[in-house]
Amino acid sequence: MSEILLVLLAGAAAGALNAIGGGGTFVALPVLVSLGLSPVTANALSRVALVPGAVAGAWVYRRELAPVGGASTRSLTAISVIGGGVGGGLLLALPASSFDAAAPWLLAFATVTLAFGTRLSQAWNATLGRTVGMSSRAVLTGQFILAVYGGYFGGAVGILMLAFWSIGLGLDAAVSNPMRIAQLAAIYLSATVLFLIASDTLSAPLLLAPMLIGAVAGGFAGAHLARRLPARLLRGVILSTAVIMTVLYFLRG
Prior knowledge:
Blueprint (H helix, E strand, L loop, with lengths): L1 H19 L4 H10 L4 H22 L12 H21 L2 H33 L7 H17 L4 H13 L3 H26 L6 H21 L5 H22 L1
Helix pairs in contact: 1-2, 1-3, 1-9, 2-3, 3-8, 3-9, 4-6, 4-8, 5-7, 5-10, 6-7, 6-8, 7-8
């Protein structure tokens, strides 16, 4: 019962963090690994469990979706679905040892992006004196690369999307957050289909079910909460979680 409660709470926290600004992987993945799952299985299971939470958050924001640059909502979502599937396929096709070795560094990379991504994008735009007006093809190409990363690992992919859109198009994070959540759901959804078919995620139903339930509740509540809490406070909570989980993951290895 204590493990089920822990996974339920981790799912709720991960779903809420993803809806608020990103970072759900920093909670879900380490908790599942600490309960005895291999990093690859834990990564796949957490992705499956977080899909409904991401969809719930996207549903809350459904009337606020807007095109990203010259890329329409439909084309961007299609690219996210394809890229997420490719990334999920890489996770299943590559040796488990590859992910075991890469996971701490992916967490570290995502943490650095979380901490400095916004400042770097602002500095870049300030140096240029203007924002780069990317073509729709450039937006879709960049989105595909991010979606592959999201399907393979997923940590801070939402933050990477916001940074990419900010640097290339000058989009405000608050304005593009609804689209971020929708694309996160698209990336996770296609990877999840592969994980359910070709991985052993269903072999741990007592971990999958409570995390899934928690993620749905957290995703729905987090999307509503994000509209009320100060952005700086939310970012601080997410960054603190990311740093702690990254350090613990390196210590574990």
